[in-house]
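hiii so um. not sure if this is the right channel but i have a protein structure encoded as tokens and i wanna go backwards to a sequence. like what aa goes where. can anyone help
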């Protein structure tokens, strides 16, 4: 039997929302000048970052032009250092990997994204953002996911690994 807390988490952190967040991440990544598709492993950092309130709040509050390095620097510059939150992204990615995979499956079956199995990359089929009947809170999450994708597109997967303290 599922506890009340687990039910509440599942209502918010679900594959439908996760699939939209992964899709918007790929759309943000697609803005890069080279139009390189997203390396598959990067998808596993999206949900842990967007579903973590402290990280999500800081993504929302950070200008798109700041970049991932500038964003990560904010965790050590705050009055009360929150550097440990960045260190937890890897563990949260491990905890949320089944949700990420469920979300990915839904994105693929909904034809929002496609995987190039030869290269191990993912790209959006459509980049048109949803407009109708999307609550503001969800729109903000989608924008944050796009911004994260844009930031990641500016860096190599190795640089992202170092900045976010994750192992791919």
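sure thing!! here u go:
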């Amino acid at each position: 039997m599922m506890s009340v807390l687990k039910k509440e988490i599942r209502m918010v952190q679900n594959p439908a929302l996760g699939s939209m967040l992964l899709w918007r991440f790929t759309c943000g990544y697609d803005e890069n000048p080279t139009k390189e598709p997203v390396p598959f492993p990067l998808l596993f950092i999206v949900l842990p970052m967007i579903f973590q309130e402290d990280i999500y709040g800081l993504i929302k509050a950070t200008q798109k032009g700041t970049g991932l390095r500038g964003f990560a620097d904010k965790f050590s510059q705050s009055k009360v250092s929150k550097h440990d939150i960045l260190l937890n992204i890897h563990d949260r990615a491990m905890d949320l990997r089944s949700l990420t995979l469920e979300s990915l499956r839904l994105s693929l079956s909904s034809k929002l994204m496609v995987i190039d199995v030869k290269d191990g990359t993912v790209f959006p089929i459509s980049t048109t953002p949803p407009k109708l009947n999307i609550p503001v809170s969800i729109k903000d999450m989608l924008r944050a996911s796009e911004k994260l994708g844009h930031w990641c597109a500016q860096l190599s997967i190795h640089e992202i690994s170092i900045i976010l303290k994750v192992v791919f």
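oh and DSSP finds ten helices and three strands in the chain.
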